[in-house]
Write a structure and sequence with these properties.
single chain; 283 residues; alpha/beta; Rossmann fold; eight-stranded mixed sheet; 8 strands; globular
Length: 283
């Protein structure tokens, strides 16, 4: 990772405690649909679940209601016949609400946080979760705390497992997330409903905590968003064909100068994925 950190030892299952603080709890139906569909529709991400020895997906900090966890289980159900989705929350009342709608073993809810409630790699010979989704969890943390949380959670992944961490607005029209492995961050994805933005840099307010305060001149993320705005302006002649067409052409122009990892079908959905190295904070 770009910021040096010390790894913390994993907590033994017998003395683990819920690590972290309760999320603010905002939960709306379909708020995380863009992230879920990206997970299911991006081959190298979906492969982490499809090829897993134990296909366990964790929804970390799902909020006041279990709605988005239930939706996650539905949207990823085709990735593996033995898929298990586990929602984790620190607030016991939220866990109780989840258990009221649970459908074990496909869907369950536990009280836990960054320690993963007994599902970390190496506990009772469990290989660790194949994928963890943590959306709108670290927004209330400081940047150093967010880096530390990344390190702690990634250390508990299964070999080949992924952490998808980021933020979105209340109705899921503006989203940014980072995908990480045990070794650290791998990609940054920007996603939006193109008709909901005036320009791509409107997404800056939804950057992950490790990047949001780095959106200043001299930092890579600022250069990326500024470059996207320039391409958006150049793509104005495509506006009569609709906001999606304009976004897709914007990314096509952007890809002439920046490394872009996805292709036109994802661009048409209002997405853009770049390598983490393209936006990593300057040390």
């Amino acid at each position: 990772m770009s910021v040096p950190k010390k790894r913390n030892p994993r907590l033994a299952a017998g003395r683990a405690r819920a690590m972290g603080v309760p999320t603010r709890g905002t939960t709306n139906p379909n708020r995380l649909r863009r992230i879920d569909r990206w997970i299911a529709g991006t081959p190298w991400v979906a492969r982490a679940v499809r090829s897993a020895v134990e296909p366990v997906v964790i929804d970390l900090g799902y909020g006041a209601t279990p709605t988005t966890t239930v939706e996650l289980a539905q949207r990823l159900s085709g990735l593996h016949p033995r898929l298990r989705v586990v929602g984790l929350e620190i607030d016991p009342d939220r866990v109780a609400a989840g258990r009221a709608v649970a459908d074990p073993p496909r869907l369950e809810f536990r009280r836990g946080g960054f320690e993963l409630a007994g599902l970390a790699a190496g506990i009772r010979d469990f290989p660790g979760p194949a994928l963890i989704r943590a959306l709108n969890v670290l927004r209330q943390y400081t940047e150093p705390e967010a880096w530390k949380a990344w390190d702690e959670v990634c250390s508990r992944l299964a070999p080949g497992g992924l952490l998808v961490e980021g933020t979105c607005d209340e109705i899921g029209r503006r989203c940014c997330w980072v995908t990480l492995t045990r070794e650290g961050p791998r990609t940054l994805t920007l996603a939006c409903l193109p008709s909901d933005i005036d320009k791509p840099s409107d997404l800056a307010e939804r950057l992950p905590k490790t990047l949001i305060h780095r959106n200043v001149p001299g930092e890579r993320i600022h250069a990326l968003l500024s470059g996207l705005d320039v391409c958006w302006a150049k793509a104005a002649p495509h506006a009569p064909f609709g906001p999606r067409a304009r976004w897709a052409h914007t990314v096509r122009l952007f890809a002439e100068r920046w490394p872009v990892l996805d292709r036109h079908p994802r661009w048409r959905l209002g997405e853009l994925t770049v390598p983490w190295t393209a936006v990593a904070p300057q040390v």
